[in-house]
Design goal:
Fumarate Reductase Cytochrome B subunit, 2 domains, 12 helices
């Protein structure tokens, strides 16, 4: 039962730690507002040309129209396709997107394993030749799992080599970032090793059925290693900078695009007053700075 309990623990740890990370972001003091236009939530088409509600004469007297749909579309472009990297550094985008697309496909693969497990528990075997729903589940699982594992392997390994060989990236890459990429690479390679002995991912559906029925997971050495590595990386990711999947929302919605007017007696006014009362705990250590005050001698 160890593998079953460990898998449950890693899933709940990933969800719980990710939620806690979101809570930490939400409770942070007000940021230094950038108001980086275009702001896609601006209504009446202003978001397309970089316009603002503040263009209006006596704007504070008029109702403000915003559209969260515009925000969602723009954030999805960045989250699903890494749009900014594609626009600004296209040569690096290919290898970086391989890693991210691989992860997205493996999430789909995991969902399809769950669908396949439920299908088999309902009495319908999932095979390539059964036809209908059974074959559809089989092939979607196969395509998403195989392509996802290969892309993750290529992306994580490729980014590791690029950071090692590129003189500019090498200056800004920490040991932890090298470790992160190698960790993902190890998980992907161990998955490919297991997959090579079971092309149809039957082992994956068996694991899902064991989780759904709270039964022991039957695994050989290669599968055991893969499950432990995968569970460990799920626990590890939310505690590192790889948890940017949580921070993306706050970076866009609360930093880049936050242009809520600071009007008298408004909610924003209260937030600004609270931010102005915040006293930073960090101190400067430069020679021209008075210790503990943050004030310059000049």
């Amino acid at each position: 039962m160890f593998l079953t309990l460990f898998t449950y623990f890693s899933i709940f740890a990933f969800i719980g730690l990710s939620a806690y990370k979101a809570y930490q972001y939400a409770k942070m003091p007000m940021h230094g507002r950038w108001e980086l236009y275009p702001v896609p939530k601006e209504g009446e088409g202003r978001g397309h040309y970089g316009g603002s509600y503040y263009e209006e004469v006596e704007w504070w007297k008029k109702p403000r129209k915003i559209t969260h749909a515009g925000e969602i579309v723009d954030m999805l472009k960045e989250m699903l396709f890494i749009k900014n990297l594609f626009v600004n550094q296209r040569r690096q985008w290919w290898i970086c997107y391989s890693l991210h697309l691989g992860i997205y496909l493996l999430f789909l693969w995991t969902f399809m394993l769950l669908v396949g497990a439920i299908t088999e528990l309902a009495g319908t075997p999932v095979t390539a030749t059964a036809g209908g729903w059974s074959s559809l589940v089989y092939y979607v699982t196969f395509l998403s799992g195989a392509s996802g594992a290969i892309l993750l392997t290529v992306g994580s390994g490729g980014l590791f080599l690029k950071r090692m060989s590129d003189s500019t990236l090498k200056k800004y890459t920490t040991l932890q970032e090298y470790f992160n990429l190698l960790f993902l690479f190890a998980v992907a390679v161990s998955g490919l090793v297991v997959w090579s002995g079971d092309i149809g991912f039957n082992y994956g559906r068996e694991i899902m059925m064991a989780l759904l029925t709270f039964s022991p997971i039957q695994a050989d050495t290669a599968l055991t290693v893969h499950i432990i590595l995968l569970g460990a990386v799920m626990i590890y990711i939310p505690q590192t900078k790889m948890s940017h999947y949580v921070g993306k929302y706050f970076a866009f919605h609360k930093v880049l695009w936050e242009n809520e007017p600071n009007l008298r007696n408004s909610k924003m006014e209260a937030i600004v007053k609270e931010a102005l009362s915040y006293k930073p705990k960090a101190t400067w250590s430069a020679p021209h700075i008075n210790p503990g005050t943050g004030n310059s001698d000049n």
